[in-house]
Write a structure and sequence with these properties.
about 260 residues, mainly alpha, disordered N terminus
Length: about 260
């Protein structure tokens, strides 16, 4: 609240004194005028022009004093109102000053608390300041004229870098999951192929056994009258016994033999 007082007002005591003096003069003039009127009625004084002028002058002074008294009374009321307004303004200023003092004290306490505060941000493994000033983009290094702003810029750059790393990690994880799925599918396919191969091996083994039993059975059948067949049979019996190989027993390229 702004208070602009051009002229210092007089104190209410001075106003009361002036008003009292004017009232006394008015009473005295009134007494003189009354005494003159009485003397004139009783014939104690002659009705001359001088006395008439004095009477008129005293009457004029009396009227003027009454006007001044009324004006001083009005000024007194206005002065009291002005003083009350100034007192209210002074009270408001005193209250505002007290509030400002409390706010300043609170701010000072907060500043002291902040200066001694230890947070988790002080222990973050940030990029060194020299590396930040050389590798960070220009948008991160625009306003770093104070240590506080520099720390904020480094924290923002650190967050940006970690966001990029998190995105790369997410892409790598998605790629890993994709490779695991492809590997699982290949393993399942190989297991199916292995099952088929095991079935083929069992079938070939059963077929080979059946062919071996069939060849041994045919070698024990009675000989005919053909002498060439008998001779061949005798020579075969004299030779070391080796298992006969049929056409089906001959190993083939790419086929496992049991």
């Amino acid at each position: 609240m702004d208070i602009d007082v051009a002229v210092a007002p007089e104190t209410p005591a001075s106003l009361d004194k002036i008003a009292g003096e004017i009232s006394t003069l008015c009473d005295r003039v009134e007494e003189i005028a009354t005494a003159g009127v009485v003397a004139q009625k009783e014939g104690l004084v002659t009705n001359s022009g001088t006395e008439q002028r004095l009477a008129n002058e005293v009457t004029g002074i009396f009227v003027r004093l009454r006007q001044l008294h009324r004006q001083l009374s009005e000024d007194k009321v206005a002065m009291v109102a002005t003083v009350d307004e100034l007192k209210r303004g002074t009270d408001d200023l005193a209250l505002e000053l007290e509030n400002k003092g409390r706010e300043a004290a609170y701010i000072q306490r907060e500043i002291a608390s902040t200066e001694t505060l230890e947070t988790i941000y002080q222990s973050i493994d940030l990029i060194p300041e020299e590396e930040f000033l050389t590798t960070a983009p220009e948008s991160c290094r625009e306003d770093v004229d104070t240590p506080h702003k520099l720390m904020l810029a480094r924290l923002r750059y650190e967050v940006m870098q970690r966001d990029i790393l998190m995105e790369e990690k997410a892409r790598a994880k998605a790629k890993r999951d994709e490779l695991r799925l492809a590997k699982r599918k290949r393993i399942e396919r190989l297991e199916k192929i292995d099952g088929h191969l095991q079935g083929y091996i069992k079938s070939v083994s059963l077929l080979g056994r059946s062919l071996t039993v069939g060849s041994q059975t045919s070698s024990q059948e009675p000989l005919g009258d053909d002498s060439n067949i008998v001779t061949d049979d005798i020579e075969e019996r004299k030779s070391p016994k080796t298992p006969r190989q049929s056409r089906e027993d001959t190993p083939r390229v790419g086929t496992p033999r049991v």
